[in-house]
Design brief:
2 copies of one chain form a homodimer. By secondary structure, chain A is an alpha/beta fold. The first copy, chain A, contains 14 helices and 18 strands. Chain A has helices spanning 14-25, 27-34, 65-70, 87-96, 106-123, 140-146, 161-173, 177-186, 195-198, 201-215, 234-242, 304-323, 358-371, 399-410, and strands at 3-10, 36-44, 61-62, 76-79, 101-103, 127-128, 152-158, 225-226, 245-256, 259-270, 282-289, 293-300, 338-339, 346-355, 376-382, 389-394, 397-398, 415-424.
């Protein structure tokens, strides 16, 4: 006789609907692979009247999430409501009750992960969150388990599908940011208020989670230097293409001297790099580890079914542990590391300057660069007359020096504005 | 106080050396992440006199692998000797003794997997084999655990680094197969007897293991239709490039109507497909699953440290289970499925014919195709006079019909030979 493990789900929106659909359709194989039947017994929703077409009895639904957490017929709590509040307190309550939790909530884990992991550890139960980073892509488990014997040196991720979709269309159509964004909004690929995506904040939350895992320490979302794609323009994309690069919004986490650096910003990536071929709304996480070398994990970063599948994978994992009354590997945050400020970053830079007279201004621009120890690798003029622009690619320089250079250059009369400053991850390697 | 888990290793060649090096260098982090110290207490080698520079006491080494398996101070057996015999009987013995086993042995798992999994199940201990497929790439665990809630529909893998290295150089240098193979042998990228690699047999073993996992059934290495890259020539590569494809040696496993099809052969892949950008000796596994959609796992398929890291990852997993006196998810082979023969494959084909007079022969060739219900999508002539060649791309056709067509075409007087027949995986989707 198969045992039954009962699930209580908090929220039943896009991801929750995916979870319920997968559990129903794949029930037989899931039972065989888990060694127990997984039964969705309770679901907390906002609106009881909406028909979700999930084939669950109406008694399963309630508007009280506390009730789901506390219910006797709930063995595992699945949190797919999102947001920090009340999701955080509900998860804490579940853990206190000794119930393992599966969550898809990146915002919560990126801000309150260490406290939640400590609560799970104290309660001796699992807290799984595969779906919180890069949707369907198995990355949390591989980092925590498969790479447990290795030393991760760097993680570079394309962690937000909306921005990758926009940048891909800008690249392939030569279109401008505003036009593509408007179209993406009309098509439902971008939200009406796109700030969380285009501002890099969604990617920053995921980068913080990945950095914590990679380096056995606690990195908070606020520790991540974050710059969005709002200022990337068609000229930037064209120049990048001409030089053999594509522009991607990347999250980069690295470690040196027990200091962790985590940043999210648009960057030039060489076209030959595996990340450069990640198109449209796909996500990917590229990992460099001491023994393993380079790894890349690629797949869908969002969507009801992909994210739902990641949640169900976690549920099966947690259920298998429940059956053996054990728990999976808990978060290893045994190393205290400080955060390296962005000013200490050393990489190459691309700058686009609007100037009045390209020829006359070059000497003054070059002098400003030299005064701040930023060496110019390439420079040329785009356009001419009233719409003249100077393109500069630097050698590797310190971010603090580059910023001082930008300030000096901005002060030159015949420089109208510094239109773009983007990092060039030429070797996709810096420290 | 930390517990100690003691490892006995069978073999200490390339992979074994990597394992020992990683265990030594990463000892502190491994202890923190595992919750126990992992100690390599015994190593079975062929030659006791060789200095391996691993910092292990000389008493740790023995020439008797049976002794390592049976030793009281060995909790986990790590098999990195390779080959089916005596590795298979040593692993069986370890399992009988209730000792979990980690192996990197693809040949053994592809041929005797079901029996070994049954022995592990009977003994109630873990048998882990992440390193057996695609070296450092975490693919076994993600398939078994992360995708446990989903239905895998297709797996397409670049599973052999040597052949991918050869095909990449042929593509990027326009060089011929024989020249690149000779160079690869001189550089140590290919063995003196390269048959296992270039004949597709190594990839076939890995494809069988992946198919078993993906479809919850037992697929044997001998069930895999296998064709190597020996006959791929520079013209094939050039034609593929012109049409927007690259030629890769792929392992493709798919399922329809409870029948599993597994094949390894060179194929045209669209340049825009993520697998097309896997260059040099890298491996990648592309997975299509019902809910998850498309996933790709990319990384190093071989080498002391990458493969060693995969073995150590498994060892940590098994050690964590030992500490909680449980075991990980065992192989689910609960579905009996038959193997679909290659004759029933339906895909597109590319053919290269050496002909005496391209113009005169076309009508007769076209007639032969028509008689066997194989429809021609594109045809053109390469070269002329004595070295004239006809290139044909078919629409989707059945393999059996294509083979009959090739037989008829070969019989036409003015067709000197059918120089190439390769499958075109245009949508990288067929069934």
């Amino acid at each position: 006789m198969d045992r039954v493990i009962r699930l209580g789900m908090l929220g039943c929106g896009t991801v929750g609907g995916g979870v319920a659909t997968i559990l129903a359709r794949e029930a037989d194989d899931i039972t065989a692979r888990t060694g127990a039947k997984l039964e969705l017994t309770r679901v907390a929703v906002r609106d009881l009247d909406r028909d979700r077409g999930l084939g669950l009895p109406s008694e399963a639904f309630t508007t009280d999430p506390e009730e789901v957490v506390a219910a006797d017929d709930v063995d595992i709590v699945v949190e797919v409501m999102g947001g920090r509040d009340p999701a955080g307190s509900l998860i804490r309550r579940a853990l206190e009750l000794g119930k393992p939790v599966v969550t898809a909530n990146k915002e919560l884990v990126a801000h309150e992960g260490p406290e939640l992991f400590a609560a799970a550890r104290a309660a001796g139960v699992d807290l799984a969150y595969e779906a919180a980073v890069a949707g369907a892509i198995p990355i949390i488990k591989p980092m925590k388990e498969s790479l447990a014997g290795d030393r991760v040196e760097r993680v570079v991720g394309i962690l937000n599908g909306t921005t990758n979709y926009i940048l891909t269309r800008m690249t392939e159509e030569g279109a401008d940011y505003e036009a593509v964004l408007a179209d993406a909004q009309a098509l439902g690929y971008a939200e009406a208020d796109p700030t969380a995506d285009v501002g890099g904040h969604d990617a920053a939350a995921k980068a913080a989670i990945l950095a914590s895992l990679a380096f056995d320490t606690a990195v908070h979302a606020d520790d991540v230097f974050t710059q969005g794609i709002e200022s990337v323009n068609a000229t930037d994309i064209r120049v990048a293409d001409r030089l053999g690069y594509v522009i991607k919004l990347v999250g980069i986490a690295s470690e040196a001297d027990d200091r962790v650096a985590v940043r999210v910003h648009p960057a030039f990536l060489p076209k030959t790099h595996p990340l450069a071929s990640v198109r449209g709304s796909f996500n990917a996480v590229y990992v460099e580890a001491w023994a393993t070398g380079e790894l890349m994990f690629y797949g869908r970063g969002a969507g009801a079914m992909p994210t739902g599948a990641a949640v169900v994978g976690d549920v099966i994992d947690v259920a298998r542990n429940l059956l053996q009354t054990v728990r999976g590997p808990t978060e290893s945050q045994h190393r205290a590391k400080s955060i390296r400020p962005i000013e200490e970053l050393s990489t190459q830079y691309y700058l686009l300057l609007d100037v009045e007279d390209a020829a006359g201004v070059l000497a003054r621009v070059a002098t400003a660069f030299g005064e701040h120890d930023v060496s110019i690798a390439q420079v040329w003029q785009e356009g001419g007359g009233d719409s003249a622009q100077l393109v500069l690619i630097t050698h590797r320089a310190r971010e603090a020096d580059l910023r001082a250079t930008v300030e000096s250059v901005t002060a030159i009369d015949s420089v109208r504005s510094v239109a773009s400053v983007l990092r060039v991850e030429a070797e996709v390697f810096d420290s």
